[in-house]
Amino acid sequence: MCRVVTVSATYGAGGSIVAPGVAERLGLPFADRLIPAADRPYRDDAGEQLASDERQQLARGSLLVRLASLGSGFGLPVPDAEDFGDQVRNLVEESIQRIARGPGGVILGRAAAIVLRRQAGAFHVRLDGPSDRRLAQAIQIEEVDRETAQARQVDTDRARTRYVSRLYGCDPSDPAMYHLVLDSTAIPLDGCVEVVATAAEAYWGR
């Protein structure tokens, strides 16, 4: 049985801290929101121009970079409805299945709880909390002012919800999709790491 933990997190819930912490605690690889090679230049290794359909696929793939970078301060455009389609979904799902078929790992984002909902050994976690407490926590984590954090919170939560809704017709806040839902604004983040890791080990040891 492959050991996988998927972590879904709203903005300010500390997913970027808790998920890698859980991976370290469990001795598993960590996969963040960014899909490797999702935003390559529009040329192949030989320097030749890519065909128009390949360029379109890579342009859609850049959505993954933009989603992963939301809340990071990179200032990339927020994805819109036209960005979501089968090519993006296939690319993301391939990356998730590669982890599940291989050494396992802790996956942050990517709607991995949906993709692996029938995968034996996959433990699904949601990190959330009241909006105002998530905002306060984001200000501390990112060391930004309140106005900046508020703008990022609105854009990030909206885009991540839209991503799951458009590709899978699901609401990422639905607790039925997860084995564990945790208010990571009420428990210190290092405590959340321990809670998730302990719960995952108990799940695998059933």
Please write out the topology.
Elements (H helix, E strand, L loop, with lengths): L3 E6 L5 H12 L3 E2 L20 H18 L16 H16 L3 E4 L3 H4 L6 E7 L2 H12 L3 H23 L11 E4 L5 H16 L2
Parallel strand pairs: 1-3, 1-4, 2-3, 4-5
Helix pairs in contact: 1-7, 2-3, 5-6
Order of helices and strands: EHEHHEHEHHEH
- In terms of quaternary structure, the protein is single chain
Considering DSSP H and I runs of 4 or more, what fraction of the residues is helical? 40-55%
Mean pLDDT: 80
Supply the number of helical segments: 7
Question: How many domains in all?
Answer: 1
Description:
The protein is an alpha/beta fold. The chain has a single domain, classed as P-loop containing nucleotide triphosphate hydrolases (Rossmann fold, 3-Layer(aba) Sandwich), CATH 3.40.50. It has seven helices and five strands; from the N terminus they run βαβααβαβααβα. The protein has helices at 15-26, 52-69, 86-101, 112-115, 131-142, 146-168, 189-204; strands spanning 4-9, 30-31, 105-108, 122-128, 180-183. Strands 2-3-1-4-5 form a five-stranded parallel beta sheet, with helices on both faces. The longest helix has 23 residues, at 146-168.
Fill in the keyword field for this structure.
206 residues, Rossmann fold, five-stranded parallel sheet, 11% strand
